[in-house]
Design a protein that fits this description.
Helices cover 40% and strands 16% of the residues. The chain has nine helices and six strands.
Length: 201
């Protein structure tokens, strides 16, 4: 594996949450998941892994654009926005996770996601291997609260009562954020269409 510069501090024993996705665009839901996990798990940092592309979603905006938007939103110095997956040359989460664990073996990584993503987690490549590689923490979000009970990963592992080594699945609660990238994109497209209509003579 090619040597890759860390996006932030990586000293021995640091606890770092990994929040992956297209971030197309980054929004309050990403902040919400990060903040809830940071406090509950006493994380030193959260890395937002802005992916070059998501195999399960349409082609996103350019990576540089999504990184810039995410950095404008994530003003907390303990949330580090990074395009490290592009430098690692990984496309799938399992490959990114394994590459990060090899590159930074003394860091305690935890995979973070909203409960809306847990519903489709079993569609991710080698999802069982992801669960075996690092603890998974799900922050419950509106409309998908029951996903933490019925998703294949939850049926396979059960729900942990406290942070535990992998394989484990912990669900966290907090004030629920309604924002999602899909909703924000739909709103933006609707506004653009309305603007075009207003320009029509």
């Amino acid at each position: 594996m090619t040597w890759v510069r860390p996006p932030g501090p990586v000293s021995d024993g640091l606890r770092i949450g990994l929040l992956g996705g297209s971030f197309d665009p980054a929004h309050g839901g990403h902040l919400y998941v990060s903040e809830i996990a940071k406090k509950a798990l006493k994380l030193d940092y959260v890395w937002w892994l802005v992916s070059p592309g998501n195999p399960l979603k349409p082609a996103p905006d350019a990576l540089a654009v999504r990184l810039k938007r995410a950095r404008l939103l994530a003003r907390d110095k303990r949330i580090i926005v990074t395009g490290i997956e592009q430098r690692l040359g990984t496309r799938y989460t399992i490959d990114s996770v394994m590459a990060l664990k090899r590159r930074f073996p003394h860091v305690a990584f935890t995979w973070l996601m909203g409960s809306d993503n847990l519903e489709q987690f079993s569609r991710w490549r080698r999802w069982q291997n992801i669960a075996a590689a690092l603890p998974i923490v799900v922050v419950r979000r509106p409309g998908s609260v029951l996903a933490s009970l019925h998703a294949p990963l939850a049926r396979r592992l059960g729900l942990a009562r406290r942070p535990s080594p992998a394989p484990s699945l912990l669900a966290l609660d907090g004030p629920r954020s309604l924002e999602s990238s899909t909703e924000l994109r739909s709103r933006a497209l609707g506004a653009a269409a309305e603007a075009m209509l207003n320009l029509t003579p």
